[in-house]
Amino acid sequence: MCVGKCSRIVGPCLLVLGTLSMAASILLLFPAGASKYLLEGHISSHAKAVPGVWGGGIAVLLAATHITALGWQCPGCSTRHNAFISVVLSKLALLGAASCFVLSGVGLTNGPLCFYNTTELGLRHGALWGYPFLDAIDQGPHARADNYLYNQRTWSICLEPEGIVTWHVVLFSLLLLISVAEMVLALLQILNGCLGCLCGFCEGK
């Protein structure tokens, strides 16, 4: 496939994925669409880090914009110099997507911050805000094996926000899938851009 044709596919795909990543990360700040939990500070640390905004979003969109322009040959774009810039930006996108993947994976593993009854975990602190599934893991190896992701019956331990576990799991899982796709496309564009630097563009040849 020609360098330009490949860029015409990779660029728009990254634009869509970067936009979806930002949307998913922002939605994590508003459980069930409510803003009061963000105002009260009852949002998990990994959601507050918004990895989908700066990692899977802005870093990827910067590369996607240049790659799209490169593919559609704006005046002066189809040059080895611009192909090299696309490689640099694609590496930035790869790093951003990888960061988003790691932070989303940790956030998904730790579970959401919610208002829960600690007595259900064998603790005697009453109801409070915390990470119930992370606390459960801390109880011992038997609890670690009973991961909340594979046992939906434990999701009801979270009393507030309503449906927070589903919200958390779906959006962080979406961020994981998006970041994987972004990494694959970024790697593809790095190879594509290197070919453009070495061999030039094949349009018109």
From TrEMBL:
Entry's localization field: Membrane
Membrane topology qualifier: Multi-pass membrane protein
PANTHER family: TRANSMEMBRANE 4 L6 FAMILY MEMBER 1-RELATED, TRANSMEMBRANE 4 L6 FAMILY MEMBER 19
Keyword terms, alphabetized: Membrane, Transmembrane, Transmembrane helix
Domain of life the protein comes from: Eukaryota
Cellular-component GO terms for this entry: membrane
Primary location recorded for the protein, binned into one broad class: membrane
Coiled coil: none
Family membership noted in the UniProt record: Belongs to the L6 tetraspanin family.
Transmembrane segments: 12-32, 52-72, 84-108, 165-188
A Pfam entry, by short name: L6_membrane
Protein name as it appears in the record: Transmembrane 4 L6 family member 1
InterPro entries referenced in this protein's UniProt entry, alphabetically: L6_membrane
